[in-house]
Design goal:
With about 425 residues, this protein is mostly helical. It contains 20 helices and no strands. It has one domain: Up-down Bundle (Growth Hormone, Chain: A), CATH 1.20.1250.20. It starts with a helix and ends in a 6-residue tail after the last helix. Its main location: membrane.
């Protein structure tokens, strides 16, 4: 890998890891901390549900961030936009660590929490598309799957970092002190991490494919919706199932596991083991996506996950520490197959002139259904039916949608990005 390409991959990986870290520490806090500190007047189930609603806010706003920063990235370049998204996400996360709680300012506390979560969503919405494009448009066309997979590793690394910080904090600090002030530490640490990521990201050059383009007045969002509508819908449908599976495996496990009486520390350790498994598997699946194509890897991961989910909940309830640790490891291995090809597969659906907007909007819009609604729907299904089976059926239906959309999409593993720039229509 040439030195300039290594720098680009490193900058994309570092910055995106920090963005996902910011995202996942909120998810952990929404399951473990916020119900008690920001919604204390509600019963435990309602408080958890309200907390997860604020978690879901970012998934709704991420498409807005994708449209806004995608427009800027397609008109003015990838690099400058990625600097802005990193600062925006980091600032919002650090401010969450400074928020007063409900006992201090009443209803203003959850309102401020939701506002900062809204801003987090805007920043993350613009981040992924630019990072994936910067690597894909710099890199070797024969290795776009592997190079894109290196960007995708940012998600489990961010999860690993976030839960590692939470796990360390809960281990070092007594429970009363943790709820008094210790929960703020992971959020405030984001400011230092963002400063490091910003320094790395400023060292990279602009995408060569974007630099080759002739400037022209255009509205990328309009072009994506009118000329590339079919591929936009396929991108959304190709990701909803993996997003929901990731939530079930790494966030719902904290809610469901605590309801079974499993210790919080064990659950956090299980999520850490799953994140390590996913991070290790992603490059391998990226390699397979280059060798055999994006579609076989994506569909194989979805089918495996549909089988896994019916074993996941019984493993958690089996009373064995080993099974609690193994359940998310198996799940994250399946998720890695659905996750690794996306940084190549989704951008390859769109031409260079609208690639930032199309890829970002397709990827992030799926989060509304897979990330925003999944926590609410899964929590409701568990409460209403008193069993995990409806959750498993719900996830399986979304995985079937993933398979259908991927089957309908064009295989682009061995197509040059410049060839994709030919005019396309819905």
């Amino acid at each position: 890998m040439a030195r300039s390409l290594r720098r680009v991959v490193g900058a994309s990986l570092a910055g995106t890891t920090l963005e996902w870290y910011d995202h996942f520490i909120y998810g952990s806090a929404a399951a473990l901390v916020f119900p008690r500190l920001f919604f204390p007047d509600a019963d435990p189930f309602a408080a958890t549900l309200l907390s997860l609603v604020t978690y879901s806010v970012a998934f709704v706003t991420r498409p807005l961030g994708a449209a806004l920063f995608g427009h800027l990235g397609d008109r003015h370049g990838r690099k400058s936009v990625l600097v802005v998204t990193l600062v925006l996400m980091g600032a919002a996360t650090a401010l969450i660590g400074l928020l007063p709680t409900y006992t201090q300012v009443g209803v203003l506390a959850p309102l401020l929490l939701a506002l900062l979560r809204f801003i987090q969503g805007i920043g993350l919405g613009g981040e992924w598309g630019g990072a994936a494009l910067l690597v894909g448009e710099h890199g070797d066309g024969r290795r776009r799957g592997v190079l894109g997979a290196l960007v995708q590793i940012a998600s489990p690394l961010g999860l690993l970092l976030a839960n590692g910080v939470f796990s360390l904090t809960t281990w070092l600090i007594a429970e009363d002190a943790f709820f008094a002030w210790g929960w703020r530490v992971p959020f405030l640490a984001s400011a230092l991490l963002v400063a490091l990521g910003l320094w790395i990201r400023l060292q990279v050059s602009e995408s060569p494919l974007f630099a080759e383009m002739e400037p022209e007045p255009r509205t990328p969002l309009r072009e994506v919706v009118t000329d590339h509508r079919r591929n936009l819908l396929l991108a959304i449908g190709s990701r909803v199932g993996s997003d929901t599976a990731f939530y079930v495996c790494n966030i719902l496990i904290l809610v469901y596991g605590t309801s079974l009486g499993i210790e919080r520390q064990l659950l956090l350790n299980a999520v850490l083991c799953g994140a390590v498994t996913q991070a290790a598997a992603i490059p391998w699946f990226g390699h397979l996506a280059d060798r055999y194509g994006r579609r076989p890897v994506l569909m194989g991961g979805a089918i495996a996950a549909a089988v896994w989910v019916f074993a996941f909940f019984p493993m958690l309830g089996g009373g064995s520490t080993a099974l609690v640790l193994l359940a998310p490891m198996l799940g994250n291995f399946c998720i890695a197959a659905m996750w690794a090809p996306l940084a190549a597969y989704v951008p390859e659906l769109f031409p260079t002139r609208v690639r930032y907007t199309g890829a970002g909007l397709g990827f992030q819009s799926a989060g509304i259904f897979g990330g925003a609604l999944a926590p609410i729907i899964c929590t409701y299904l568990l409460s209403a039916f008193g069993t995990w089976i409806p959750v498993a059926v719900y996830l399986t239906a979304l995985l079937a949608l993933l398979v259908a959309c991927v089957r309908a999409a064009r295989e682009t593993a061995h197509v040059e990005l410049r060839a994709i720039d030919e005019p396309a229509h819905a």
